[in-house]
Write a structure and sequence with these properties.
single chain; 122 residues; mainly alpha; 90% helix
Length: 122
């Protein structure tokens, strides 16, 4: 009975050991994959003498700067688009005013012609 318990414990420990070895192998594969990607990005290893916290803070600051610049560029593109649309609107308004002036002039001509025709018919 004691032998059975020891054997069961041994089997449980072996299963746990196998599980941990599998997890280690999986982590090693993931590390190798990430290392390959990192080597594609930067083929030579660069030694860093600064603490990780300082580098992390610098990366955060750069991310914020990029966000601000991209927001600024989007605002500039929106303003550029607005100016273009406003310019088109203004030119259309001028054309409408000119057409209205022409219509008014044609109406006056038609009124004068009608008046002249009435006088002629009398």
């Amino acid at each position: 009975m004691v032998m059975r318990q020891l054997k069961d414990e041994h089997n449980a420990i072996e299963k746990e050991k196998e599980k941990h070895l599998n997890m280690r192998d999986e982590c090693q594969r993931k590390l190798n994959t990430d290392l390959k990607v990192a080597l594609e990005i930067c083929p030579q290893r660069i030694e860093v003498g600064r603490p990780v916290k300082e580098i992390d803070d610098q990366m955060t600051a750069l991310k914020r700067k990029i966000e601000v610049q991209s927001n600024g560029q989007s605002i500039q593109s929106i303003l550029k688009e607005y100016r273009s649309i406003k310019s088109n609107y203004d030119s259309v308004c001028k054309l409408i005013n000119k057409v209205s002036d022409i219509c008014e002039a044609l109406k006056q001509c038609a009124d004068q012609l009608q008046e002249s025709w009435r006088k002629y018919l009398r």
